[in-house]
Structure formats: structure tokens, C-alpha cells
Amino acid sequence: MEEKGKILIIDDNEDVLFALNLLLEPYMEKIKVTTQPTRIKHFMETFQPDVILLDMNFCRDAISGQEGFDYLEEILSIDPKAIVIFMTAYSDTEKAVRAIKAGATDFISKPWEKEKLLATLFSAVKLSKSRKEVDRLQEQVTALRNDASLPELIGESPAMRQVKDTIFRLSDTDANILILGENGTGKDLVARMLKHFSPHATEAFVTIDLGSIPEQLFESELFGYEKGAFTDAHKSKPGRMEMASGGTLFLDEIGNLSLPMQAKLLTALEKRQIVRLGAVEPVHIDVRLICATNAQLPDKVHEGSFRQDLLYRINTIELHIPPLRERGEDIILLAQHFLDTYNRKYHKSITGLNREARNKLLKYAWPGNVRELQHILERAVILSENHILRPEDFLLPKQKGQARDFDDEELNLEKLERRAIERALRQSGGNYSLAAEMLGITRFALYRKIDKLNL
Ligand SMILES: Nc1ncnc2c1ncn2[C@@H]1O[C@H](COP(=O)(O)OP(=O)(O)OP(=O)(O)O)[C@@H](O)[C@H]1O
To answer: Can you tell which superkingdom this protein's organism belongs to (predicted)?
Structure first.
């Protein structure tokens, strides 16, 4: 079916306007007619026509067509992408050619042939709609690209070096990647890095946080909709998958997706096409998929709340981001990094953290990971009056599980020592010097104890 559009007709002859209105009414969405070309601007602003049908001569007996050219110029100065069709006298081919050169889209001759007139108008409406759609998509892509300022991924611990190596090794692939890690470990940042170092680096990067969109909006967000698909759909809108086409789609918190939505997502990924809500025709999509979750997806598969086939589709490569408590000195590197950031932001000049403050951060278990560290540093920078941050500048919540390693019942010294060493090694990310410092012994003494306890 041909697409209906809004047509503005400008002609000084009322009979022509009447006849055109009558003829076109069944085929068009809306029609406005006027004998006064001086009202062009008003109609363009209030009616926003898809196509303007413009007569060439307005003064009685005028034949030069110059007025038509003047009005065309005015229209294009208001909207350079306006679609204008000239109406010319039958024999005026020369003027018609001139009109196209001046920026008109097409012309029709008077008296018109109905079929030819309709065909010309339908293709003009189609052109207008696709121009508007392309404009909207381009705007969205530009906005998304500008948004992609990439912070540095800080970390030199073995676990983080491995993450960085994997990101670089994946730089020339298109494989679907599943990023796993606790909340706040940097999954979003890693997804952006993957895109930044991929063949799609300059294309769109579109994120959708499946944990935050209500179930009933899932389809319209992901697949888009056509005008009139539901009560509030006043105009058509592409979904996130369509916007990401040619680039990267980042599905955050994929573990939160309900089973019916998992089925819809899987179908779209398998068929590489989506159908907008209210549309009939499918749209081809070509996206590189990156997903992230803090959930144990294999457990969810086991209990029947996550589809095995969807897991296979999204986890071609799995990338594990370690919790902050296992990254040792990275905690200090990150603290220094956030200190610099917030010094700049709040115009402070705190130079660093003293030894006790560093130890306090190293011993804490960081359930909220890097995000929690970032907030703690921001608060410390704002509130501290010291030149160097001290332990009292960091108000760390008391942790429920903190005493578990040393529960009240346990008095056996060897067991206590073993647990303390194991915990220090875990928290230091396997760095012996740091673990020794945390335990308050020398590196040499630590080696001896590890040997004695057979750790
Ligand atoms: N290694 C890092 N270096 C620098 N900044 C980091 C690092 N890791 C995380 N951040 C910062 O910490 C904050 C939280 O990171 P991010 O949002 O990527 O975590 P996430 O794992 O996606 O969290 P969630 O699971 O809650 O979605 C962000 O401001 C991010 O820029």
C-alpha cells in the first residue's frame, strides 16, 4: 500500500485547488490548499507538509514562472530538505528542467493525468518520509557517538592485566561477548573498551539496561514502533536494535530478562531481523552483541529461568571481571585516580593517602566494588580538611561477613594464622609484598609461614 502524506497545494486558481483537493483526498493523509503564497511560511511551520505542490505563475496572465522560482527559493531557505513539486503548463519542459535544477523534486504538467499525478505524489511522500527517518537516525547516532567519551581502565593486577589482554586480543573479531562480574566491577566500562577497540569503533554503541526498563516497554524499546501502534505512539520510532545496526548493542543486566522476552530477543538475533510494533515488514539488523550480568547464568539455566539456547548465542566469549577485593594494589591505583578526578572537580589539592589510610582501603572487602570506592573517594575529597587523606577520612560501613574469618569460637592459633594469610593473599591479588604488609610481617616471614602451613 502507498504511504499517505500531508500535502500543501499553492495555486492562485481556486478551481484548480478545488479539483485537486477532491481528487487527492482519498489518497492522502491531510491536504491544505491556499491561493496566497505569502502564507507559505505559516503553513510550513504549522502544518509541516510532506510535499508542497507549487504553481509557477501567480499574477493573472503571468507566464514567466519567475514567481514560482522565488517561492521555491523561500521554501528551501526555510527547509532545505523540503519536497516541492512544480505545476507547469503542458509545453513548459524547459522551465520544468530549470525548476529541478533550482531544487524542486519533480514537476507535473497541467492539465494533469490522474495516474501520473498520483504516482508523482506517492514517490514524493515516500522520499520525504525516508529523509525524515534518515535525519532522525543520524541525529541519534551522532548523539550516541558524542556520548562515548572513554575513561581509562585502571588496573595492573594480574587479573586486570588478563582482562586488558583479552580486550586487545578480541579487537579484530565480531564475536558476541558476555561480561560477567559483580555490581560495580566495571562491566559497562569494559563493554565500551571492547567497542572502542573493535572493527565497529566508529559506529553506534547503543546500550539498553534490561534491569531498569519495565517489562511492558521492553518490546517498544528494543524493536521500535510505528505511528499509531498504541495510544501514545504519535510518531514512528526506531528501536535500540535498529539504532545499533552496523554497530554494537550492549545489553546490560541480561540476567533480568523474563522468559517471554528472552524468546523474542533470541528470535531477533537468530533471524537477524526485527518487526517494529504495529508494522508488517521486517527490518534487517546487523549488530555486534555485548551482554553483561552479575547473575550466575548457568544456575539460572539449571533452574529453568534462563534459556540455554540464548546463553549459547550470547556467550561465544566470556570475560570475567574480578571483584575489587581480589585486585590488591589496584585499589590504591584506583583511589589515586579518583582522588585526582575529584581534586580537579572540587578544586582541592589533596596530595595522596597516608600508609594507614591505604591499609584501611586494602583490608575492606568492597561489596560495591569500584563504584563504591569511587563514592568513598568523592566523599573524602569533599569533606577532608587534610592535605593527605587519613583513615578517618574514609567512613567504611561495618561489614556483616567481616568477622567470619575470625569467628568468636575459633581460638586455634594455627587455624587463625592460616585464615589471615589466605585472606591477605586473596585481597592483595596474590601480591606477596602487599600481603606481608597487610599482615604486618616481612616478605621473608610470609614465605616461611606459607611453607610451614603448606599453603
Ligand atoms: N578499572 C577501572 N578504571 C577506572 N574506572 C573504573 C574501573 N572500573 C570501573 N570504573 C568506574 O566505576 C564505575 C562503575 O563501573 P561500571 O558502571 O562499568 O560497573 P558495572 O559492572 O557495569 O556496574 P553494574 O553491574 O552496576 O551495571 C564507573 O564510573 C566506571 O567508570
So the answer is: Bacteria
